[in-house]
Write a structure and sequence with these properties.
Keywords: Coiled coil, Signal
Number of strands: 16
Strand order of the largest sheet: 5-4-2-1-6-7-8
Pfam families: CEPT76_peptidase, MORN_DRC7
GO biological process, one term: flagellated sperm motility
Radius of gyration: 28 Å
InterPro entries: CEPT76/DRC7_peptidase-like_dom, DRC7/lobo, MORN_DRC7
Number of helices: 5
Largest sheet: 7 strands, antiparallel
Structural class: alpha+beta
Length: 344
């Protein structure tokens, strides 16, 4: 999945690389039961009728009087509030990272043995816009920012996230890079892949802008450029897998066995392939009050392609209330219906 996701990101123009390393148990096993529901609570898509804009009687209007009052104090107060909000945001993010680190599961004997592959995207890679063959840079290259993409879930996180432990190597369509850095956390890794002191380049023939040479005053740049034959470290074999082909039927089904269920923290998210359910249901979200998924509190159901134009049902287990929403097109122009089954 990581290779497929990396190929799609490369085709979209991103500087993506497949990462081979070690991750935590919940990441390798795709266990999201400790993660809160990451999306906004679903809302029904109700089409609104387009209303004609009222036309004014005259197109000529008087200009409003200019405001001649001084707003210096208001602007200074606004800048002060923005500064305080930015500082508070930094403190909240640091506190959130600390809480996430404390909530991690305890380390077991397989902590450093769970191999995993994910994708890293470099946002400000300098070699993208450079077209010269050889680069002259100083000994301290600029730090690059990176983001991690988890292929099993599609979630994006920064390099300081705690779900990844070690990074052994990365690769793309040009080369295979082995990490030679010493670090305590993944966030400390330097992502300038051109620097051969941090990353070992295994395959020859990569683009020249992907290699950095540190040139001193008494050295010649031409002496540092080696032939491709001298950089040949590894013989690669041809791909032994068949070309990926997704037919129209498989693309329409979307999920194995026509459905997919994901458990989050106190939430159960179910999705269904189109036309696989007799009722037209395509998604269902159930919220629970416990971590064992035994006591539901609310349930949302979403539908498509129904003759009665039903698009969603919301059921509350505590109040026994049901709310139904309909799309435009019913003969009776019904938009919604609310019912209560509570006994008095």
């Amino acid at each position: 999945m990581a290779t497929l996701l990396c190929s799609m990101l490369l085709g979209a123009g991103f500087q993506a690389f497949v990462v081979s390393g070690v991750a935590r148990a919940e990441t390798v096993e795709c266990d999201l039961r400790e993660r809160p529901y990451p999306y906004q609570m679903p809302a029904p898509k109700v089409e609104e009728e387009q209303k004609a804009k009222p036309t004014t009687g005259s197109k000529y209007k008087l200009r409003p009087l200019p405001d001649l009052r001084s707003h210096l104090e208001e602007n200074m107060a606004e800048l002060l509030r923005e500064k305080e909000a930015a500082e508070q945001k930094i403190k909240d993010e640091a506190l959130q990272r600390t809480l996430e680190e404390l909530e991690l599961q305890p380390v077991d004997k397989y902590h450093f043995r769970r191999s995993h592959a994910w994708v890293v995207v470099l946002d400000n890679a300098p070699w993208v816009t450079v077209h010269t063959a050889v680069h002259k840079t100083d000994a301290s290259p600029k730090m690059l920012t990176a983001r991690f993409f988890e292929p099993s879930t599609g979630f994006i996180c920064e390099t300081h996230c705690k779900q990844y432990i070690l990074i052994d190597s990365v690769w793309n369509q040009y080369n295979y890079y082995v990490n030679k850095q010493e670090y305590q956390r993944v966030s400390e890794i330097r992502w300038d892949l051109r620097d051969t002191t941090d990353w070992e380049h295994i395959l020859p023939g990569e683009p020249p802008e992907m290699r950095t040479y540190v040139v001193h005053s008494d050295e010649n740049v031409a002496d540092l450029v080696h032939p491709i034959q001298d950089e040949h470290h590894l013989d690669t074999i041809r791909s032994w897998v068949m070309r990926l082909h997704i037919g129209a039927k498989e693309f329409e089904e979307r999920f194995p066995k026509l459905e997919k269920t994901v458990y989050y923290q106190k939430a159960k998210h179910e999705r269904y392939s189109p036309y696989s359910q007799r009722t037209g249901k395509v998604m269902q979200l159930t919220l629970y009050s416990d971590d064992e998924y035994n006591q539901p509190t609310e349930r949302w159901e979403f539908f498509e392609n129904r003759t009665d134009k039903l698009i969603s049902i919301k059921y509350n287990y505590e109040t026994l209330e049901t709310e139904e929403n309909f799309a435009i097109g019913r003969n009776d122009s019904l938009k919604g219906m609310h019912a209560s089954l509570q006994m008095y």
